[in-house]
Amino acid sequence: TSERGEISGELGYRRADGNSGDPTTAERSTLIILKSGIRAAVLHRGELRLDTETYTQALSGIQGYPSSVLTDNHEGKRGVVWTISFNYGLSRTLLLNMTINGRHSDNRPGRLFARSEMTAEF
Q: Could you tell me which of 77, 73, 66, 68 has the C-alpha nearest to residue 27?
């Protein structure tokens, strides 16, 4: 971490069991997640961020479509979720924020979402 930027990383493991009551037919999810993040100062009053989450998931005992609680809202067997954001202070009272989010998995089409806003203080 510094005034100019930051690099971060995280490795996670999650195991979840469904509420079927019968252990022989219980739904299970095992999830391994690798997260990374980069933050960099841009120009004098700006900041650029990139956050990614890559995952692999093993599912067993699934009847139909797995619940988002069981899978922690991760689709398919593998995928990536990412965000790019840019924040810039145009002046002391005017702030510009732009964000693009993406979500891709092996069992669904990719999804993109973009948002921008300008905030004024007066």
A: 66
